[in-house]
What does this fold into?
Amino acid sequence: MAVYTEPSDEDLARLLSGWGLGAPLAFKGIAEGVQNSNFFLQTPEGRFILTVYEAGVALDDLPFFFGVTSAVADAGLPAARPVLPRTGGLVQELAGKPVSLVGFLDGISAKRPDASQTRAVGAALARMHLALAGSGLVRPNTLGPRDWPSLWAPLAEAGEALEAGAGALIEADLATTGERWPSGLPTGVIHADLFPDNVLFVGQDVTGLIDFYFACTDFLAYDLAVMLNAWCFEPMGREFNLVLGQALLRGYQSVRPLLAPEIVALPLLARGAALRFYLTRLADWIKPADGALVRKKDPRDYSARLAFHRAVVSARDYGLEM
It folds into this structure.
């Protein structure tokens, strides 16, 4: 969530006319994340989130993303339903970019999630996996292990400049994940980006699972590995919080117990997830400033996580009770 493209008053009036929502009562940019331009919108018809999709999202992928969020909401989980324009189709257009609208969800993201919240979101992830099992929705993971070497190649010099010695370590990570990546694990639609800023809470209750724009078909346990990285490390990734790890895994397994092969694969999946976010954050880090209202995220946060994963012996190191 960021602000790159902002509608003028005339643009906003035209867009709202297309949704039949009346005049805006409130409209404000949301300065988080890096992927799209997002705005809070209130009209006489209710509260919404308006998204302008920047270059990182393909128009052809939007039916999949909307299908996922609708399926999750249909299952009774807290996902924001898309609002379709009156003229048909899925989106409107602004400056040649697709624009969508979804319902607003109550709640706020936890800046420092506690164990109760982490357990709750682990259970919510498992319920989401089960809810999407029969959806028939399929989209390849375009940021999976086969893509990591090509992501790294143009970044190697910048990575070494940012952290001396990073090049050799990342090359070793690429080699290890490439040679040992598992096969045959349970697969389905995953969120692939369920960071704390993509989950809303009221108190200890999960009230929103948002931003499904990296959702894809992959190992279910990989989604859990992403969350081990995103929820269970202290700031700058230098220490794994075992209490939070236990909470996340207990919450997930209270709904969907992991199979033995998933447990064995979890350390490698977690290392791969850390590598994926290191690479994409490094790519964003070195982009020239363009004046957008956006906060870049330091890739060294994930190089510290990678250092932890390299030393992991088994899933017990993440707090899994076996």
